């Protein structure tokens, strides 16, 4: 029997701290003996999803492509960390249904904090109608109904959030090292 790798799926608004926390999680997972791959939504949009827009249909296509990559990696025992806004519950349900070992991590951060953190100025552009369909402004972010883990980056340090996730992984899988 093969062991699927876990798929740790970070969801939340732009600027919530998904990628920062995801990157910080890579090394502790590797140190625990796991093979780890990080898939960042921004990087994937520039490669496998280049040319897709931000309509609901294009966003769903983007997530389906990411799920496909996760399936390939996880079936080979790789723990996959995904950092992607994933704004619709339908997308997260699809990922959960398709991926054994799916763990939904909701990065709960208020919109106003995300806007303050926005170094690219995307929220300001969205508020000025320069960017249409921007999640949280012109397009909805549907809050996860039952995430496996909730982290609050506006209150907790990255290290605390990583420790929370690592504790969950050890408890959920019953192992501290890869088998």
Automatic annotation (TrEMBL):
<dbReference type="Pfam" id="PF01583">
    <property type="entry name" value="APS_kinase"/>
</dbReference>
<protein>
    <recommendedName>
        <fullName>Adenylyl-sulfate kinase</fullName>
        <ecNumber>2.7.1.25</ecNumber>
    </recommendedName>
</protein>
<dbReference type="InterPro" id="IPR059117">
    <property type="entry name" value="APS_kinase_dom"/>
</dbReference>
<keyword id="KW-0067">ATP-binding</keyword>
<comment type="pathway">
    <text>Sulfur metabolism; hydrogen sulfide biosynthesis; sulfite from sulfate: step 2/3.</text>
</comment>
<keyword id="KW-0418">Kinase</keyword>
<dbReference type="InterPro" id="IPR002891">
    <property type="entry name" value="APS"/>
</dbReference>
<keyword id="KW-0808">Transferase</keyword>
<feature type="domain" description="APS kinase">
    <location>
        <begin position="5"/>
        <end position="151"/>
    </location>
</feature>
<comment type="function">
    <text>Catalyzes the synthesis of activated sulfate.</text>
</comment>
<dbReference type="InterPro" id="IPR027417">
    <property type="entry name" value="P-loop_NTPase"/>
</dbReference>
<dbReference type="InterPro" id="IPR050512">
    <property type="entry name" value="Sulf_AdTrans/APS_kinase"/>
</dbReference>
<comment type="similarity">
    <text>Belongs to the APS kinase family.</text>
</comment>
<feature type="binding site">
    <location>
        <begin position="12"/>
        <end position="19"/>
    </location>
    <ligand>
        <name>ATP</name>
    </ligand>
</feature>
<keyword id="KW-0597">Phosphoprotein</keyword>
<keyword id="KW-0547">Nucleotide-binding</keyword>
<dbReference type="GO" id="GO:0004020">
    <property type="term" value="F:adenylylsulfate kinase activity"/>
</dbReference>
